[in-house]
Design brief:
elongated, 79% helix
Length: 70
């Protein structure tokens, strides 16, 4: 899939936003874990969202890598 320059720029912006959210969730998980009593259900939900973000980040990164013919 070849992206034009505008699509590449939009994808990079989205990628950056997801990476920031992913890092923020790390901080939230750390805070919740260190401040007893931890809300295990909330932590599980955040970890699930973090995993979804990781998958989407990987997908966007693959989109930005140009296809190299074999």
């Amino acid at each position: 899939m070849n992206l034009n320059e505008e699509e590449i720029a939009a994808t990079r912006v989205q990628l950056h936003e997801l990476q920031v959210e992913h890092r923020d969730l790390d901080l939230v998980i750390e805070h919740l874990t260190l401040n007893p009593p931890p809300d295990q259900l909330l932590i599980r939900r955040i970890k699930k969202r973090k995993l979804q973000l990781k998958d989407r980040i990987a997908q966007l990164e693959r989109m930005l890598i140009p296809d190299i013919p074999a």
